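Forum: Protein Structure Q&A
Topic: Joint prediction for protein chains with partners

I've read a bunch of threads here and the consensus seems to be that you should model interacting components together rather than docking separate models afterwards. I'd like to see that in practice. Below is the full input, 1524 residues plus whatever partners are listed. Could one of the regulars post the assembled result?
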Amino acid sequence: MADLYDIGVSAIINLLSALAFLIAFAILRLQPVNDRVYFPKWYLKGLRASPIRPKGSLTKFVNLDFRTYLRFLNWMPEALKMPEPELIEHAGVDSVVYIRIYLLGLKIFIPIMALAFAVLVPVNWTGKMLDNAQYVSFNSIDKLSISNIPQGSNRFWAHIFVAYASTLWTCYMLYKEYEIVTAMRLEFIAVADRRPDQFSVLVRNVPPDPDESVNGHVEHFFRVNHPDHYLLHQVVYNANKLADLVEKKKSMKNWLIYYQNMYERRPLRKPTIKAGFWGLWGARVDAIDYYTKEIEKLTEQEAAEREKVISDPEAILPAAFVSFRSRWGAAVCAQTQQTSNPTLWLTEWAPEPSDVYWNNLAIPYVEHNIRKLFMSVALFFLIFFFMVPITFVQSIANIDGLEKAFPFMKNLIEQGPVRSFVKGYLPGIILKIFLLCIPMVVMLMSKIEGFTSFSYLERRSAAKYYLFILVNVFLGNIIAGTAFQQLSHFLHKSATDIPRIIGESIPMKATFFITYIMIDGWAGVAAEVLRIVPLLLFHIKNAVLVKTEQDREEAMDPGFLDFAAYEPRIQLYFLLGLVYCVVTPILLPFIIVFFAFAYLVFRHQIINVYDRKYESGAAFWPDVHRRILVALVISHFSLLGLLSAKLSIKSIKATIPLLLALPILTIWFHTICKGRFESAFKKFPLQDAMMKDTLERATDPTLDLRSYLRDAYLHPIFKGGEVYAPPPSDEEEGFPLVATKRSQRSSRVTSLAGSDVGVQLV
Amino acid sequence: MADLYDIGVSAIINLLSALAFLIAFAILRLQPVNDRVYFPKWYLKGLRASPIRPKGSLTKFVNLDFRTYLRFLNWMPEALKMPEPELIEHAGVDSVVYIRIYLLGLKIFIPIMALAFAVLVPVNWTGKMLDNAQYVSFNSIDKLSISNIPQGSNRFWAHIFVAYASTLWTCYMLYKEYEIVTAMRLEFIAVADRRPDQFSVLVRNVPPDPDESVNGHVEHFFRVNHPDHYLLHQVVYNANKLADLVEKKKSMKNWLIYYQNMYERRPLRKPTIKAGFWGLWGARVDAIDYYTKEIEKLTEQEAAEREKVISDPEAILPAAFVSFRSRWGAAVCAQTQQTSNPTLWLTEWAPEPSDVYWNNLAIPYVEHNIRKLFMSVALFFLIFFFMVPITFVQSIANIDGLEKAFPFMKNLIEQGPVRSFVKGYLPGIILKIFLLCIPMVVMLMSKIEGFTSFSYLERRSAAKYYLFILVNVFLGNIIAGTAFQQLSHFLHKSATDIPRIIGESIPMKATFFITYIMIDGWAGVAAEVLRIVPLLLFHIKNAVLVKTEQDREEAMDPGFLDFAAYEPRIQLYFLLGLVYCVVTPILLPFIIVFFAFAYLVFRHQIINVYDRKYESGAAFWPDVHRRILVALVISHFSLLGLLSAKLSIKSIKATIPLLLALPILTIWFHTICKGRFESAFKKFPLQDAMMKDTLERATDPTLDLRSYLRDAYLHPIFKGGEVYAPPPSDEEEGFPLVATKRSQRSSRVTSLAGSDVGVQLV
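Posted by a regular:
Agreed with the consensus. Here's the joint model:
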């Protein structure tokens, strides 16, 4: 175990590396040539153009104004300046609420730290348990922790007091925060600017009808069942193949530009490629000719496919976006059940148009459930057998394995530095690569599950990733062995033993987690601000693809706030803070530094860098809130386990009810918060909708909602120039009598089961 | 352990006692004097009047037609005759669905029994484990059970096969049944006759408004937010005190009649009572005078209180029943959220008027949650410390204790028969009395929790009682010791040990549960049909209170289907059947006899006896369904535990995944069913509402909905003759501009926070 001194050294190393990142960032960001890497958001907003500097060619790429370097940290106060309403305007509710998570961490942990340092550090320090005992391994950290209190001491009451105080404070802050975020969300949904999703509802699982097309069926259904509110609808086309073609064409175009650029620079050598599979074999042909022809071919295919999608009724999926005359009408339709079979005509709030994940709109109800079942089994295996493939790859990727697989590289591998790299770093790097893939794997799993909006996919992925981190990072480091070994270990332990085992090993792991926080937290966040990968990619693209200003625009990769990958990691810090605040309070300052630093960096990033992929109105907050409460409950049980091993039999009887009350009250607090706030994230109050509708009618009486909404939910593939005619929709206002094919069949008029009986009776 | 012979004897005894009950019933029900006890439902329906027989005074009381006695079991086919639609008409959806639970038991267990007898009985019987071993206690039952299979045998595959087959069959039947019940409910809600609750919504937690009364506030809020649909509303008065007065007056009247009757029969002795506390002390006064005066006093008080309730704005609770112009409007309002604060203006389907539990309508949101928290803690103590008060009472109620408490009874107690009664039966009777109180206690707890309809109170009570039975009857008989001892026992066992412990003791308890089924099931149901307590009460009332035909009407106590007390007990039989169908299939016939007999008896009772207290449209079905699935999962884990102790190490590895898949698939099946059907019990499809609305407009265009709904949700205390003027409601149709006090205050007109901003802007 590391001593305070070791921790100090580690802290200095990590601080220095973080500082190095920051200095590198400070220098790089001032270079005009990197401007599009570090300030892409402003370019996207059209508020910044490629820098125009005095003619000198060097200053176009390098910043020679040395005074600016002196103020290399001035981005920090800059990042804090923008007030929140403006930030919402600039970066969206999602991003603003996301950085509030870091702020919440500060709000929770600074007072807790103050209390823990005032109460627990003196109590622990003077505990004298470790002074007297003949313990082999103890260190100054342990002297500040609960380990320094002797068995059965009365001092544990101080810890119970701090546990209560910190739980109460955390719940109070969570409540306040939930209140604020809910208000922001309601403001966003109803009172903010007019957006198509305020008026629209996504309808899925439209039942097949032998007499009608999906188009007609949807229209008739909503005209009958929402007669005063239905305005228009947009069917969903199965354009996945078309999207693939467009994607392929875009990549071909990139290659064409690349070879054209090459040819321009070296006009003597005409570039050629092999025409076969992946350019690896086949006849050698002229590259520019080849790609020009391929693009022509694809353009034709694309046109044919486009034609087919629009004209073929088979290409229409049993889903639609239905828009209403008022927010009230949409709110009603989204919150109610439409038919007696709740697996048909499923209505939900339409996601923002850019938030729609088009590929999943047509999955039937039962298939969706089967997919969910399979993915939860897969998640179980991912979490508990995560180490199996890694161990397998590691066993191959050793010296002998590599030599066997690549005999021709034997000499290279046998060389000293390569050998020691393979031996020393390769297993770690393989682990890291697998770990980096987890967010992508869980995102893929969520996509397979079949959810219909990017925001929801991200939330589902975050939930999976959180479980993964909880088991593999938190528990995996507290208890030795792989996750599956832990699981079978715990299955054979009693319900009272499990918290005791975890609780007892928690103080011993404090130094490990402090180091973890510094490496993953401090240095990781500093690396985030530097954006090494986008920086390199931008310059490579700039070198080979960019000719015009528009190309440069496209080469720019602002990235986005990857909620699914970042949020579960923040949750780990909440968990560590809450678990250790009573046990080893010395860990708290490290967490607070992380939260403060990350808050700064991400505030800077959302102002200057990240693009907004979609806007969900902070729909993720209930998840964040719930996970912090889960962390709180875990901290209670670990404290219970720790104290049950440390207290005398008599005090245990007195404290167990006290300690058991904590998780019960926390879970109760969760139900209160759920009842009080969660519906704001699921439903949409009619009062707000009505208010906004009324206001809008008063301020903008001539608004043509129909033309505003007509193309809002068109598949993005149909947007951007190509003419597309939406299916003719009945323009008649009021409640027209819609002639259905079915109503012409007199034999079925009397059937009550049909969806349009209302029409026939009117 | 009992042998087959013992079981046979016990079966004969219980069959005989059941037969005795049935014969007693057959004789008693034919006596005209008991007609109102055994056929009260027909009296309530007005289809039967007091029997008019030939003048002879004896035949008025006793049936002398001996031919009718010969057909003493003919009520059984009679009970099966009424077809289901007519039965729904006659007894309501709740009752019909309730008896379908018994039918479901038959549908599930008859095929399972056939399979288990065909497969498992031969496999077990030839297992020969118990023939060879030197077991001290084994019997023929055990030879038919899984205990007869030797350790590590391959025959266990047969049991796994039956477990799969029975799980699949149970799930299939549950799915079919859920489908049928859902259809019945939807039919009831939308398509059935017009009822006030189809148009009405219960609004709770109306926020206080400094400028307006609750009455005005509700009207304005709904006029603004449901402008096209709001029709009228009915505020809720705090009439609890008034109801108490009315109740007290009724009881006084009963006493008055009693003494008047006494006086008529024995005119020589004027009846007197003591005027003090409970008639135990005080001056002796003339009883008739006393009660006449008391009644006069109460009548005055009642009138004053009634006046006060109607005129005092403080007596209006922050809750209201809001009625809409159409079912569609009510369906929308019930399913949507009204304001941004989801703890205010809570809307839900109005219960049927007779289903409303008026006392709980005004509990604020947070208080409701605190009550729920306290009641769940109380439930925990009720379940796990249930034995503590019983043991205490039993310790007092022994010979010595009684002699100490009642020294003057010493001689009596010391007598032989009394002594042996106190020693032998008193502890058992005390336990039984406490057990009989449990349904009342959990109902009281549910009432304290603060739910607003009788049907929901019953469902909550049933859930509590189910937990109680599960822990104290099922687990309590499998594992020795009190519930709390079991709990602490299990807390110290590992997750793999708990199913093993339960699984291993399950086969040993088969004979106990067979006896339990015969006593509690067979004899208990037979006692139900006899209605001993109502029979006695009716004749006592008849003797002392009844003078007129109307008094006789009131003395009749038809009782009602006590869902909260009966359903959890049925669930115990499902649990036993599912757990034992693989382990000891010989138990199944006993359960099937129970289900068949109970089906017959309760079908007879709902046709002839029980009154309908309310009608919830089978809202309890999701609970029934879920509990059967819980039983299924328990059966899987007990089988897993049993087999893990019985299988060889090698086969365990092969079977554990197979056995673990069973509960996982069952839980998945639960989520499927929940998604597919449950919303029919929570929401109300708009299509059905619209269809019925349209039909009604077409068939009954002149319907005056306003007068139909005006008094539907009046507190029952205001009904029945006393003139009551509902608060004047704006009769203007359309969307009137409602003048609120607030709109006269110019300073607040611009505020967006108010509920009636819509009005001001229109």
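The first strand of chain B starts at residue 200 and ends at 204.
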